[in-house]
Amino acid sequence: MDKKSILRAFFRFVNRFFVVPAFQRGWGRIISNSLTGDIMVLGIAGRKTGKIRYTPVTYARIGQNIYCYQGKETKGQWYLNLLANPEVEVLLPGDRFFGHGEEVHDIAEKLQAMRLILQGSGINRSMYGFDPEGAKDEVVQEKTGDIPVVRIRLD
Question: Does domain 3-154 correspond to CATH entry 2.30.110.10?
């Protein structure tokens, strides 16, 4: 097993047995902090089984909308499930909503959301090789332009 597979298995274990249960019990504020970043949990119906699956993601709030992103790879199951079943449960630290998820296509909205998501990513805020707070729009666009951003409109 390679290093990437081991790391992925570790995060699956932590997410399944610690992060998701903490949010479901209302303890999301313990998990979501300045070190780990602004984290929420999404409950999304599986596109094949219809069963609700929960996954933690980094997020930002702009007005009444919640934004998150898929990451460098567009093969994440939660993302594919959201595209197929856009009605989602949103577990924020200290709150719970239902909403409708959709991919953001407007470049300016996507750029603003990505910058805020990365700013709130705790110790991972520079994971794409730039400081999201001070970087020019062109740098943010160049480094993250092909990464899908999802907008969740709260019901």
Answer: yes
